[in-house]
């Protein structure tokens, strides 16, 4: 009996592992955050949507589409956090190799995913990893993305116009609140400021680009800035080809001081232009609309995630916005984008799109471009192998159940035989008496 149970348990575990390990990653849509750690490009939406793309040996300069084998699922890593974690993690640590997650419940503690060791450092309720809080209220939470200064190991997240930013020191595990806030810039307004994009410049200036204050779009020509060195706020007036206001867009910073703003929505329509450049090497900062080669027709992204990898901006997932949205919720009505695209930013005068990783069958591709397809025979072989293993596991389960059934029948018959013998003996003793 114990052997039968053991066989069934092992078979079920193997079956479960096969299902989880061999399923095609089918992620996409909004809510993803991206981080680059070494040669690994991490994507996180929640604990059940966590994976990285292995860039080892990958040349970004070609049009090769990343093979599915490079998409490494991390959702089944154990041990992992047992309590709810924030949707807004950050990449930090002494070597910028740890993805840090704040707990959503109870005390102020963190969970860490170590990208070098490729495992969770589970710290639930460990007093060593409770955060030192300075001027932080008891009911503190993370409601916006973090922006990290890799030189100092400090990360910043906007809280509100009244409260300014929260500051996390990943080296000393300290969580503090800025002494200043931007309320004076808006006449002590109690309105919320949301749906902006942000970058941090080498001089420690955090730029909050676009978004909306209350129900009003924040002008792209007037950028809210927080100085992390002096703990002060200001509005920077820009010049040039100022793009239209927008929400649900992304912004990334290049090594030569260009801020690339991509995608988003304005008044329920795709923001225009979809790609704009802010040159922060000039004073005042100057906007321009770049020349784009190989534009991706029919692709208008919002609620996506973007990150710089060498001379490319990698933009992934989000919503492929249509010409209309729900006027009440302002949520896109069109389909999720399940693919990853890259933009060659090496030439400041012209930019070029290409498909980077494909995760669905109906993929918008760059004009006049034919991406290199993944090896179909490898995928077919993997599918056949998976099917064979599943069949073997099912057969083992059936055999185990059959053995267990025969065992129970034999046990039942033996029990009845014993009862019959006992009954006969009792009758014999009665007759003798």
TrEMBL record:
The keyword Iron-sulfur does not apply. Keywords: Membrane, Signal, Transmembrane, Transmembrane helix. The keyword Transcription does not apply. The chain crosses the membrane at residues 387-407. InterPro entries: Gal_Oxase/kelch_b-propeller, Kelch-typ_b-propeller. SUPFAM superfamilies: Galactose oxidase, central domain. Residues 1-21 form the signal peptide. Gene3D superfamilies: Kelch-type beta propeller. It comes from the Eukaryota. This is Galactose oxidase. It comes from Rhizophagus irregularis (strain DAOM 197198w) (Glomus intraradices).
